[in-house]
Design a protein that fits this description.
There is one protein chain. It is built from 6 helices and 10 strands; from the N terminus they run E-H-E-H-E-H-E-H-E-H-E-E-E-E-H-E. By secondary structure, the chain is an alpha/beta fold. It has a 5-stranded parallel sheet with strand order 3-2-4-1-5, sandwiched between helices. Helix 3 crosses helix 4.
Length: 258
C-alpha cells in the first residue's frame, strides 16, 4: 500500500533534523513540495539542501506544485475561517492528485513540514481528510521536528516555562486585545501585523526571533514598550529585503518582587 510521511524538518537549520527524520528521508521515493512563489524560493532550496545532506542514495525525486492562493482579506473570525477552509479544500484536492499520480502501489511519499507538524500546520488535517474520503488508499506516519518555538527559546537562552506557570500559545490575530487575561507567558505565532503593539504593559518582556536557524536569523528582546518599534522596523526591512518573513515571539510578564 502507498505510504505518506509527514516529516518535521525543524525551523531552518539542516542540523535540526532528528535521527528519526533522517531514517524517514531515506525511505522516500517522492518528496511533495508546495511552492509558495518566487519570494520563497529559498524555502524550497532549504528543503532540497536538507535532502542532499542527509539522504545517502539517489533514487528519490521532487514533485513541486504551486500553492493555491488564499483569500487574506476577511477580518471577522467567521469569514476568516471560511476562507481558510476553502483554501484547505483546494490543498486537499492537490495532495490527493499527487499521491495518486506520483506514487505506485508500494511507493513512499513525503511532505517536509517546517518546524513540527503538530504546531500551526495544516498538513495532518488534510491527510486525515483524504483518509476519510477514501478515494486513494494509503497509510501515513508523522515524524516530529524541532519547532520554531523551541528554536526561539534556545537562541534567547531562556526556558519556555517558569516554575508552576502555564504557557499560552496563540496567533497574532487573537492578540488584538493585548495580553490574554490571566496569562503571563504567551507564545505568539502567525503574526503578520505586529500584534505586540497592542500590549502596552511596561512589565511585559518580548523575546522575538525571525528566520530562526538560518544565516538570516534575527533576535531582539527587551520590554515590549521599549523595543516594539525596533522590532517593527527590523521586521519591515527584512521582509522588504527577502520578500517574506517567518517570525515568532514570546511575551512574558515580569513577576513582582517578593
Amino acid at each position: 500500500m502507498r505510504e505518506v510521511l509527514v516529516i518535521g524538518i525543524g525551523a531552518g537549520d539542516p542540523d535540526y533534523i532528528t535521527i528519526q527524520a533522517i531514517k524517514a528521508l531515506n525511505r522516500v521515493d517522492a518528496f511533495f513540495i508546495v511552492d509558495k512563489g518566487t519570494a520563497k524560493d529559498d524555502l524550497v532550496a532549504l528543503r532540497k539542501e536538507i535532502c542532499e545532506r542527509h539522504i545517502t542514495g539517489s533514487g528519490y525525486r521532487f514533485v513541486e506544485v504551486r500553492d493555491p492562493e488564499r483569500d487574506r482579506t476577511p477580518t471577522d473570525s467567521d469569514r476568516y475561517a471560511d476562507a481558510v477552509r476553502a483554501w484547505l479544500e483546494q490543498r486537499a484536492a492537490m495532495f490527493e492528485r499527487m499521491i495518486t499520480d506520483e506514487l505506485g502501489e508500494d511507493g513512499v511519499g513525503a511532505f517536509l513540514v517546517w518546524g513540527d507538524p503538530s504546531l500551526y500546520d495544516g498538513t495532518i488535517r488534510i491527510i486525515d481528510q483524504l483518509i476519510e474520503r477514501g478515494r486513494v488508499p494509503f497509510e501515513y506516519s508523522v515524524i516530529p521536528g524541532v519547532s520554531s518555538l523551541h528554536s526561539l527559546t534556545a537562541r534567547h537562552r531562556i526556558p519556555l516555562n517558569r516554575i508552576g506557570e502555564p504557557i499560552h500559545i496563540t496567533t497574532g490575530r487573537r492578540l488584538a486585545g493585548g495580553m490574554p487575561p490571566g496569562q503571563d507567558n504567551v507564545v505568539v505565532m502567525l503574526d503578520g501585523e505586529c500584534a505586540f503593539r497592542n500590549v502596552a504593559d511596561d512589565d511585559v518582556q518580548i523575546y522575538w526571533g525571525a528566520y530562526l536557524g538560518t544565516p538570516d536569523e534575527l533576535l531582539i528582546s527587551g520590554p515590549v514598550t521599549k523595543v516594539g518599534a525596533e522590532i517593527e522596523r527590523v521586521r519591515a526591512e527584512a521582509r522588504k529585503r527577502k520578500g517574506w518573513i517567518m517570525d515568532t515571539y514570546l511575551l512574558r510578564r515580569t513577576p513582582p518582587s517578593p
